[in-house]
Amino acid sequence: MTLNRRNLLKSGALLSATSLLPSSAQPQAPQDLPKAFQALRPLGDRVKPIAPEEFRARVAKAQKLMTDADPQVSTLYLTPGSSLYYFSGVRWGTSERLLALVIPRAGDPLVVCPAFEEGRLHEQLRWPIEIRVWQEDENPSGIAAKWLAERGMRTGRIAIEETTRYTFFDHLRDAAPNFEYSSGDPLTISCRGQKSGHELELMRLACEATFEVFRAVFASLQTGMSQSDIAALVERGFSRMGLRGGALVLLGEWAALPHGTVKPQKLTEGEVVLIDGGTSVEGYQSDVTRCGVIGKPSDKLLRAFEILRRAQDAALDACCSGKLSGTVDDAARAIVTSAGFGPDYKFFTHRLGHGIGLDGHEHPYLVRGSKTILQPGMTFSNEPGIYVRGDYGVRLEDDMVVTPGGAAQLLTPGFSPSFEKPVG
């Protein structure tokens, strides 16, 4: 998951780490967890890992896209991150030492790896990939350029994956100066944007696990709890399920700040508790927000909830294959602004949603003016909000997938029924 302010706020960046950690973490002992947590269990054999042939098929799709591009792309160049995992199954941290996956337009790919890390790399490889190592006093970009030349590629176009550090791109450009260089986005987004049935299955499991943990947390809330107390319950709930996850928790008037505050907060009767978080299963993320109230919610909160639920429904209906992604934001925003919470971004202060998959936030996005054509298998958050500074904030967030025909479908088990029963 790409690090950003929202993820860092979610329980100390726990979510940002989930895409680099196995989903089989050991479940936590109950200790003094509330009674509602006793029903939480690991997902077990419901989780089916990505098979080697799936990784191979992803590489083959990228190669077809390179061939069909105009102009053609000679090579896709990737360094550590979620796209490296997507094509190779290798989870690798970023450092000053280059590890790169080189996918040519035809033929088998290459991994360039520090020599002393070769053993660790072999442990992670899901299918046979050629490895060339470099010693500490060698230029790893030169090794990649030499490998391309051996395959008759001395000119052409190299597409660079978007999260590649500039220094790695610059060194490759120096080592292979006769190539043209371009963004790898058209390749990686086209591959990753449309999820397979297996990917959707993993995302649904992540959403189901998130619902189970949130349900236990909301059942255990008491007045006087701090946002840190509640976030710790979320983290421990996921740990009990053998998962890593966390949440951003906002209370009362501070829920009007979508990405939170460092100010201490205490849960008070009649005020909103907003929990925004999730987990990952085999690296595939969930992102869910639910709002609850201890006691009786005020009329203004009830009205905001009803408006946002209608906005979510409008977004689900508008998120159709063949439509432009920006129109989904338009549909939801029209509900909110026509109810008096406008104009534009005044009270609904952010885009409707983001793509989700191996990263919590990834391409494409549901934002005004976006011209991405929606296609089956694209997955998004659906998260309208109403934020009245100094008073209250409410956000409802579910995950959804574009279907071959008609409205999108939820990946989460269901929309929020009410403040009294946030998870259903």
Report on this model:
With 424 residues, this protein is of the alpha+beta class. 33% of the residues lie in helices and 19% in strands. The chain contains 12 helices and 17 strands. The strands form 5 sheets. Strands 4-3-2-1-5-6 form a 6-stranded mixed beta sheet. Strand 8 and strand 9 form a beta hairpin. Helix 6 packs across helix 7. The two termini are 28 Å apart. The N terminus is likely disordered.
Name the features.
424 residues, alpha+beta, 6-stranded mixed β-sheet, 4-stranded antiparallel β-sheet, globular, disordered N terminus
- Briefly note the structural class of the backbone: alpha+beta
Let me know the number of strands. Answer: 17
Q: List segments where confidence is low: pLDDT < 50 over at least 5 consecutive residues.
A: 1-5, 8-30
Major β-sheet annotation: 6 strands, mixed
Mean pLDDT over all positions:
93
Radius of gyration: 23 Å
Helix content: 25-40%
**Dominant shape:** globular
End-to-end separation in angstroms reads 28 Å
User: Which range does the strand content fall in?
Assistant: 15-25%
The strand order across the widest sheet is 4-3-2-1-5-6
Number of helices: 12
Helix and strand element order: HHHEHEEHEHEHEHHHEEEEHHEEEEEEE
